TrEMBL record:
Keywords: Cell outer membrane, Membrane, Signal. It is found in: Cell outer membrane. Belongs to the SusD family. Residues 407-573 form the RagB/SusD domain. Residues 1-23 form the signal peptide. Coiled coil: none annotated. This is Starch-binding protein. Residues 29-229 form the SusD-like N-terminal domain. InterPro entries: SusD-like_N, SusD_RagB_dom, TPR-like_helical_dom_sf. It comes from the Bacteria. GO terms for cellular component: cell outer membrane.
Length: 575
């Protein structure tokens, strides 16, 4: 028994001794010192690792633009719910024009808002890492270009946030602890921050690059033209007319650098991989595989996302443009007695996630506007030969009256019209890559435009009109109409004060390219709500859009979690 007692006494004595020794430095004892624990300060060792942060932003932008995962909120970002796009009858659950269901809690707003802040966070990380002492740069120019790309992305994100949400918190540092006290800048301050960022790095971006996809100076100058235009519109709304005119002048100045600088020019003659095919035209050439990049000889391309079929097959399943699937019509339902199936003659394998409104497909080409290369059948296909053997139109064009009005039931006809529509050469092709490998005409494997010179020209036209120079604005629009071989050329008298001429020409030139929400909301006033009510396909918009707005709401979740600093909600969304 004594032996047992001694044994336990000795054990407790040893434990007390260890405890006493541990009291020497409790914090030292408790502090974890792992051998391989990464922090922001030690995670980067080389300049190529910093560049990988930028590559992640390029990848994020590609996925945002092409939407390979078919996310509903990205279809909204690309235009669903505007005057140009709506949803077909089979997608009514994804409608974005029923304002009985759209409020500040809507997830689409939160997704858009958070996506741009994710990009800002990555840009801030790249900027922080670029200054770490252990990073060795091969040349000062390498570092300058890395910094320039990061600051461009930060400016690009704030430009989008400013256009969609107005003034937002400006975050320029990485955050390692939770914060609940972010303060909203004004919309003017948000635009100005983005302008200052781009001005600082304009000359650190190269004029051109050897390979496509990386940022160039023209991308910054184009965005400066848009930002100064947006700034001017907001200054005018704030009652600062003289400052607005100065901003418009700066917009024209930066647009001039792109348009007249000698690097870029409209493609006015056939070019590229299919230029010798009799069926095409120069506008069609712009959207053929192998023709998109500046490096392909396309002097109209300022910045393009990169799609690579070999990478898609090997490892990158998102390296695709699923446009034929997501944007093409569903003739197999809307005109099933005459047109059905998958094929190059019906726009590939369409499931129609969003569809062009009647405004986009027909109204902008009515009457004197019809004679336009962009309305030709090779560009905007309107002729579809019946492919159902029992159809009286087998092998010959199916009339649109039959597709649109093929039923005695008006509701069925309305649904049919939403499923059957012209097919743009931007979303389909007659030569699909990968069919031998099992691809099914859902995807295109060409690069795609982020910025094309045509949009720069349209921005300059708008800035000129806002300066009071309607003849100059008309002349700019006619640069595009001349290339499109339009019979009707616009004049100063066509440049209406509600900017319908500008918006119509943007629709003709940039369908499936521009982010229409950015354009409509940037223009301010009641332009967005007026046009949505006028052109939305389904009647819900006119019935439920009973208030005016020119900004999306700040997501309610953002307001609620920023508990230490009140964030004001945008006008029209508190109801």
């Amino acid at each position: 028994m004594k032996k047992s007692i001694f044994k336990h006494t000795s054990t407790w004595a040893l434990l007390l001794l260890m405890s006493a020794a541990g009291c020497k430095s409790d914090m030292d004892f408790l502090t974890e010192k792992p051998k391989t624990f990464y922090t922001v300060d030690n995670a980067f060792a080389t300049s190529s690792q910093v560049d990988q942060v930028l590559v992640s932003i390029y990848s994020q932008l590609r996925d945002l633009w092409a939407n390979p995962s078919e996310e509903a909120w990205i279809f909204v970002f690309r235009g669903n719910g505007t005057d140009m796009f709506d949803v077909p009858s089979i997608r009514r659950g994804n409608s974005f024009n029923n304002y009985g269901n759209i409020n500040a809690d809507h997830g689409h707003f939160n997704n858009a808002y958070s996506t741009w802040y994710q990009m800002i966070s990555k840009a801030n990380l790249a900027l922080y890492a670029s200054e770490l002492p252990q990073i060795a740069w091969s040349t000062p120019e390498e570092k300058a270009y890395t910094v320039a790309q990061a600051r461009f992305f930060r400016a690009f994100a704030y430009r989008n946030l400013g256009e969609l949400f107005g003034g937002v918190p400006i975050v320029t540092e990485i955050t390692t602890t939770p914060r609940y006290d972010f303060k909203r800048a004004t919309r003017v301050e948000t635009y100005q921050f983005a302008i200052d960022e781009l001005l600082a790095i304009e000359n650190d971006l190269p004029e051109i690059t050897v390979k496509g996809g990386r940022l160039v100076r023209g991308a910054a100058q184009h965005n400066l033209a848009e930002l100064y235009l947006a700034l001017g519109i907001q200054l005018a709304a704030d009652g600062r007319a003289a400052d607005a005119q100065t901003a418009y002048g700066e917009s024209v100045k930066f647009a001039n650098k792109v348009i007249d600088g000698g690097t870029y020019s409209l493609m006015n003659t056939r070019f590229g991989t299919r230029q010798n095919e009799a069926q095409g035209n120069v506008y069609w050439d712009l959207f053929q595989e192998g023709n998109v990049n500046y490096q392909d000889g396309n002097r109209e391309c300022i910045w393009a996302i990169q799609i690579d079929y070999a990478a898609y097959r090997a490892e990158d399943g998102k390296s695709k443009l699923p446009y034929s699937r997501t944007y093409s019509p569903v003739f197999r339902d809307g005109a099933k007695d005459h047109l059905t199936g998958t094929g190059v003659d019906v726009g590939g394998r369409g499931i129609s996630q969003i569809m062009p409104t009647m405004y986009t497909r027909d109204e902008i080409y009515a009457d004197k506007w019809a004679d336009d290369m962009r309305n030709s059948d090779i560009v905007f296909r309107r002729i579809f030969n019946g492919n159902v053997a029992s159809s009286p139109y087998y092998g010959v064009p199916v009339p649109w009256s039959v597709m649109y009005e093929g039923s005695a039931d008006p509701t069925t006809n309305t649904n049919n019209r939403s499923l059957c529509y012209p097919v743009s050469c931007k979303i389909a092709t007659d030569k699909y890559t990968g069919l031998a490998d099992g691809e099914n005409m859902s995807n295109l494997f060409r690069d795609d435009y982020f910025i094309r010179l045509s949009e720069t020209i349209l921005l300059r036209a708008e800035a000129k009109q806002r300066m009071g120079n309607k003849p100059g604005a008309a002349a700019d629009i006619n640069l595009l109409r001349d290339r499109a071989q339009c019979t009707y050329k616009v004049s100063a008298a066509d440049m209406d004060d509600n900017f319908n001429m500008i918006l119509d020409e943007r629709a003709r030139e940039l369908v499936y390219e521009e982010c229409r929400w950015n354009t409509l909301l940037r223009m301010g006033g009641t332009i967005a709500t007026t046009r949505i009510k006028q052109y939305a396909y389904w009647p819900e918009a006119q019935a439920t859009l009973t208030f005016n707005y020119n900004l999306w709401p700040i997501p309610q979740g953002v307001i609620d979690t920023n508990k230490d600093e009140p964030l004001a909600q945008n006008e029209g969304w508190i109801r």
